[in-house]
Design a protein that fits this description.
The complex is a heterodimer of chains A (about 170) and B (about 130). Chain A has about 170 residues and is mostly beta strands. Chain A has one domain: Immunoglobulin-like, CATH 2.60.40. Chain A is built from one helix and twelve strands. In chain A, strands 1, 3, 4, 5, 8 and 11 form a six-stranded antiparallel beta sheet that branches. In chain A, strand 3 and strand 4 form a beta hairpin. Chain A is elongated. The N and C termini of chain A lie far apart (about 75 Å). The radius of gyration of chain B is 17 Å and the shape is elongated. Helices cover about 10% and strands about 45% of the residues of chain B. Chain B has a single domain, classed as Immunoglobulins (Immunoglobulin-like, Sandwich), CATH 2.60.40.10. The longest helix of chain B is centred in the N-terminal third of the chain and has 12 residues. Chain B is built from one helix and eight strands. In chain B, the strands form two sheets. In chain B, strands 1, 2, 3 and 6 form a four-stranded antiparallel beta sheet that branches. A four-stranded antiparallel beta sheet of chain B has the order 5-4-7-8, with no helix packed on it. The chains are: A mainly beta (about 170), B mainly beta (about 130). Chains A and B meet through strand 1, strand 2, strand 5, strand 8 and strand 11 of A and helix 1, strand 1, strand 7 and strand 8 of B. Strand 12 of chain A pairs parallel with strand 8 of chain B, so a sheet runs across the interface.
């Protein structure tokens, strides 16, 4: 009886050992830059000849987030609009002003220099993304119709361009 | 610390999160089965529910366009879909081709708005 029990135990142990196989878990980690639209912008209309994203004038500033998983591998370029992508027919020249700034960061130490280190050319602002993590950029944009003439009624859309470029 | 709190609050209240993602960051051009053409594979993931189309383009160091071929230069990509696609360029353009980009094609919104166009540019790996 004892002999049989020992034999059964031994077979069970061998069988367990034979079934113990390594199950691989495969995955690939790739460096990436993800652009996320956190807040789409809205133009406020404080007077007849101005459209602005300023909150005090009823607008909403667009906020875009850049998530990078590799430091010193990307730069962010954000360009504020210089024309409407759709609008009613306009007879006057529209003047555009705009700016972009860092509104929040996920790494206060590594990203502390982003705002002071930015480069601006025309309506475009460029940031070197030197740290991994998330950075939120906010843009403001003001369109003024020439001669202080009223914008015709209708819908107006302008495009903020957010570009993430591998270095 | 303040920035962390701001970032956390922004994350918490970001109910409409729309993202655009393209990999790899440094694609490699390889010899294709077509004579005189090099090929690389990329993947675009559309997490923007305000975007249905992405445009593919190839540029040199000076951001001048470089000729290339894909199945579709404008890819229809529904929300939360990803697509893998091949980009072919001429072998003679190997040194010139620097960036391959995917750019969101924005819709016109009826409300007065400043929409955000997203572009992600990968850089071709250059072997010395």
């Amino acid at each position: 009886m004892i002999k049989k029990l020992l034999l059964t135990t031994a077979f069970t142990m061998i069988s367990v050992a034979a079934n113990a196989v390594d199950v691989p878990i495969n995955g690939t980690v790739q460096s990436r830059c993800v652009i996320t639209t956190d807040t789409p912008g809205v133009f406020g209309n404080p007077n007849a000849y101005t459209l602005t994203t300023s909150a005090s004038d009823g607008g909403v500033s667009p906020i875009v987030r850049f998530d990078v998983t590799l430091a010193n591998a990307y730069y962010a370029q954000i360009t504020t609009p210089t024309s409407f992508s759709s609008s009613p027919s306009l007879s006057e020249t529209v003047t555009w002003t705009g700016s972009t700034s860092v509104s929040a960061v996920s790494d206060a130490t590594g990203m502390a220099g982003y705002e002071t280190g930015k480069t601006t050319f025309g309506q475009t602002t460029q940031y070197d993304l030197t740290a991994t993590g998330s950075t939120w950029f906010t843009s403001s944009s003001v369109a003024t119709n020439g001669g202080s003439k009223a914008f015709p009624g209708g819908s107006y859309t302008a495009v903020v361009q957010a570009i993430c470029v591998a270095q | 610390m303040k920035n962390y709190i701001v970032a956390f609050i922004l994350l918490l209240f970001s109910t409409n999160v729309f993202a655009h993602d393209m990999t790899p960051t440094y694609p490699e051009l390889e010899v294709s089965y077509l004579d005189g053409l090099l090929v690389t594979e990329l993947e675009v993931f559309n997490k923007r529910n305000d975007v249905d189309y992405y445009e593919i383009a190839v540029f040199d160091e000076e951001w001048l366009p470089v000729p290339f071929v894909t199945s579709y230069k404008i890819i229809q990509l529904k929300y939360l879909e990803r697509v893998r696609f091949s980009v072919y360029i001429r072998s003679t353009d190997r040194d010139r081709a620097t960036y391959v980009c995917s750019k969101s094609r924005t819709r016109n919104d009826p409300a007065p708005s400043a929409v955000i166009s997203s572009t992600i540019c990968s850089k071709f790996r250059k072997d010395d």
